[in-house]
Amino acid sequence: MAKKDGQLTPMMQQFFDLKKKHPDAVLLFRCGDFYETYCDDAIVASRILGITLTKRNNGYNKGDEMAGFPHHALDTYLPKLIRAGKRVAICDQLEDPKLTKKLVKRGITELVTPGVALTDNVLNYKENNFLASVDFGRSACGVSFLDISTGEFLVGEGTPDYVEKLLGNFQPKEVLYERNRRQDFERFFGTRYITFQLDDWVYTEETAQQKLLRHFGVKSLKGFGVAHMHSGITAAGAILQYLEMTQHTQIGHITNLARIEEEKYVRLDKFTIRSLELVQPMQEDGRSLLDVVDRTVSPMGSRLLRRWLVFPLKDRQPIEQRLDVVESFFREPEFRQIIDEQLQRVGDLERIISRVATGRVSPREVVQLKIALQAIEPIKKACLMLGKKSENSDSSENSEVSENSEYSENSEYSEYSENFELSDLSDSGNHFSGYSAIRHIGERLELCEEIRERIAREVKPDPPQLVQKGGVISDGVSEELDQLRHIAYSGKDYLLQIQEREAQLTGIQSLKIGYNNVFGYYLEVRNTYKDKVPQEWVRKQTLAQAERYITQELKEYEEKILGAEDRILSLEAQLFAALVGDIQKFIAEIQVDAVLLARLDVLLGFAKTAEEHRYVRPVVDDSEVIDIRQGRHPVIETELPVGEQYVPNDVMLDNERQQIMMITGPNMAGKSALLRQTALIVLLAQVGCFVPAEAAKIGLVDKIFTRVGASDNISLGESTFMVEMTEASNILNNVSPKSLVLFDELGRGTSTYDGISIAWAIVEYLHEQPKARARTLFATHYHELNEMEKNFSRIKNYNVSVKEVEGKVIFLRRLERGGSEHSFGIHVAEIAGMPRSIVKRANVILKQLEADNEGVGKAGKPEHGPEARTAATIGIADSREGMQLSFFQLDDPVLCQIRDEILGLDINNLTPVEALNKLNDIKKIVSGK
Question: E strands, 25-136, where?
Answer without folding.
Answer: 26-31, 34-38, 54-55, 65-70, 88-93, 106-112, 131-136
